[in-house]
Design a protein that fits this description.
single chain; alpha+beta; Antithrombin, Chain I, domain 2; Alpha-1-antitrypsin, domain 1; nine-stranded mixed β-sheet; 15 strands
């Protein structure tokens, strides 16, 4: 019988244990990311009644993670409580680095990138340890700015946006932000943090372009009714295709039924999940309020492969939020209070977050591009396959399949309410 040396046995055992720990860490981090995404989304729905909505949870959490690097005391504890983890932990940093590398690996038809920049007023001294750590784990660049010259700062922001994302112009202005997602197309989201005395801006960008695994054909798009939340109906361009998809039927805690459809992008590393109440009389808000991380986790095991007739409206939207009015209700309040904020890990000078802006756009089209095309009115021969028809308000999530990380989350209340 072949015998392994004791040292070899120890090494094998260590590798098995490490593999198990890494898997557990990935599962727990995935759960924490989902918890934060659901909490952020539900907080926003409380103030955005009956309107289209989109937010990038991964963008906001990445920015809060960067603030964690320099936060201390109760400020750090609140950030850790909201996110569920501390980025100062080496294992967490390794996991986030690995996840960001996966996100940055582009495949044919799909491109996704994250980047951060810290814009600092000239003359402000930062701690070397903070700048090094930020650059190491979050692909962060440090930019000296003069906020007393808004036009110059705007040019710097715009230049940085060009260098870290799409080839298109990404307009940014002091005190505001902008991004874009072509939902089978291109997505960008960011958060701006402005310091009052030190005038510091933390900018995070998430950029995405994707093409459907199976594209919708323009010739199959028709103007069909979409029922709004008030019961009235409007005509909208409704995309159509018959294909095999992952589909499932679920129930909320109060036994309200809803269905979930998954549409993969090319390469299947990212997908768009669409959730729709089964009963036409059930408002989307009822599903939103009962959404939990456990509900979202159940989708992975509850989806089944099935051939369906799919109707999905073409839509485009834009949202901008000042997270200063959102994050305190999620337990992050000290960071915005000049008397108690503790960011002494960033600079020895007094610093607090005076504003936190986040803006995202989405555009969902037939092929995943912005190309406009005339809609051909045709009569489609219907099959006897089950039908998924998003002809009333629905919820959507764009997520990374391997980690379950929710990159974008939103709802469509009115497809005709187009973003500018």
């Amino acid at each position: 019988m072949c015998r392994l040396p004791v040292a070899s046995l120890f090494i094998c055992f260590w590798l098995v244990e490490r593999s198990h720990c890494d898997g557990s860490l990935q599962d727990s981090m995935g759960e924490l990311h989902t918890r934060f995404a659901v909490s952020l989304y539900q907080t926003l729905t409380e103030t955005e009644n009956n309107s289209n909505l989109i937010v990038s949870p991964v963008s906001v959490s990445l920015s809060l993670g960067l603030l964690q690097l320099g936060a201390r005391g109760n400020t750090l504890a609140q950030l850790e409580g909201a996110l569920g983890y501390n980025v100062n932990d080496v294992q967490v940093q390794d996991f986030l680095l690995h996840s960001q590398r996966d996100v940055g690996n582009s495949s044919q038809g799909v491109w996704l990138q994250q980047a951060c920049a810290l814009f600092i007023q000239s003359g402000v001294q930062l701690l070397t340890e903070f700048t090094q750590h930020a650059a190491d784990w979050a692909n962060t660049s440090l930019v000296r700015a003069n906020f007393s010259q808004p036009n110059h700062t705007h040019s710097q922001l715009e230049r940085w946006g060009h260098n870290h994302g799409s080839d298109e112009t990404w307009p940014l202005q002091a005190g505001s932000s902008s991004g874009e997602l072509s939902g089978s197309g291109e997505a960008q989201g960011e958060a701006l943090f402005w310091g009052h005395r030190l005038q510091m801006a933390l900018v995070n960008r998430v950029a995405f372009r994707g093409v459907w695994q199976k594209q919708f054909l323009f010739i199959n798009t028709q103007n069909l009714p979409f029922t709004l939340s008030d019961g009235s109906a409007i005509k909208v361009p409704m995309m159509y295709q018959a294909t095999e998809v992952n589909f499932g039927q679920f129930r909320t805690a109060s036994e309200q039924r809803y269905t979930v459809l998954e549409l993969p992008y090319l390469g299947r590393s990212l997908s768009l999940l669409v959730a729709l109440p089964s009963d036409r009389k059930t408002p989307l808000s009822s599903l939103e309020s009962q959404l939990t991380p456990r509900q979202l986790a159940s989708w992975d095991t509850g989806l089944r492969r099935i051939k369906m007739d799919i109707f999905l409206p073409r839509f485009r939207m834009q949202n901008k939020f000042n997270l200063r009015s959102v994050l305190p209700s999620m337990g992050i309040s000290d960071a915005f209070n000049p008397t108690v904020a503790d960011f002494t890990g960033i600079s020895v000078e007094g610093l607090y977050v005076s504003d936190a802006f986040h803006e995202t756009r989405i555009e969902v089209t037939e092929d995943g591009t912005k190309a406009a095309a005339a809609t051909a009115m045709v009569l489609l021969k219907r099959s006897r396959a089950p039908v998924f028809k998003a002809d009333r308000p629905f919820l959507f999530l764009l997520r990374q399949v391997s980690t379950g990380s929710i990159l974008f989350m939103g709802r469509v209340m009115n497809p005709a309410d187009q973003a500018p």
